C-alpha cells in the first residue's frame, strides 16, 4: 500500500510485527488510534512501555509478575507441595481459567527441541530441581503439550526427578496428540488436570 504519510507507514509497519496482524489490520488499528484523543493514545503507549520495562518474572516459578514473587507463589491458600510444569506463561493462564487447579506452577520457557537448537540448558530446569531439593514438593504434574517435543521434555524431566521422593504425574490425555495445550478448551483441560495419572502409567500405555 502507498501512504501519504511516512508516520502512518512507520506505525503500520510496527503493528505488522505483531503476530497475526496483516497490513490491512495494522492500518485499521493505526487509523483507529488516529481518531482517538491524544491523551488516550499517549496513555496507551505509556501502558505498553511500562509493561515491557517494569514486568518481572517470578524468582520461584518464572511466571510473569508485578513483584519478585508472583501472586500464585505468594498465595498461602495455594498447595505449595503441588507443582504443575508448563511450557510457557500462556499455559498458566489457560489452566488458571479452568478454576480447578489450586497448586503452583513452574514455567520452563519452552520444550526440548534439537531441531530448533533448544536443549535442556536453555530451559528453566535447574530452578525446578532446586525447588524439589528443598523437600517441600510432593507431586509434580507434567502439563506439557502432547507433541514429540513435549513428550521428550517430560521423559527428560522424569529421569531428572526420579531420584527424589516425589510423585510424578501427567495430565490425562483428553488432548489429541500433536495439539497445543493453550488452544484446548477449558473443560477438557480442567478435566485433564483433575484426572492426572502417574507418569509411569502413561509410559506403559504409550509403549
Short overview:
Helix content is 43%, strand content 13%.
Salient structural properties:
single chain, 207 residues, alpha/beta, Helicase, Ruva Protein, domain 3, Dna Topoisomerase Vi A Subunit, Chain: A, domain 2, two-stranded antiparallel sheet, 13% strand, elongated
Descriptive account of the structure:
With 207 residues, the protein is α/β, with parallel strands linked by helices. The chain folds into 2 domains: 6-54, RecR Domain 1 (Helicase, Ruva Protein, domain 3, Orthogonal Bundle), CATH 1.10.8.420; 75-206, Dna Topoisomerase Vi A Subunit, Chain: A, domain 2 (3-Layer(aba) Sandwich). It contains 8 helices and 7 strands, in the order H-H-H-E-E-E-H-E-H-E-H-E-H-E-H. The protein has helices at 6-15, 23-35, 38-54, 89-96, 125-133, 148-161, 186-194, 199-206, and strands at residues 56-57, 64-65, 79-86, 103-107, 139-142, 167-170, 197-198. The strands form 2 sheets. The protein has a 5-stranded mixed beta sheet with strand order 4-3-5-6-7. A two-stranded antiparallel sheet has the order 1-2. Helix 6 (148-161) links the parallel strand 5 and strand 6. Helix 1 crosses helix 2. The longest helix is centred in the first third of the chain and has 17 residues, at 38-54. It is elongated, with a radius of gyration of 21 Å. The chain starts with 5 loop residues before the first helix and ends with a helix. The mean pLDDT is 88.
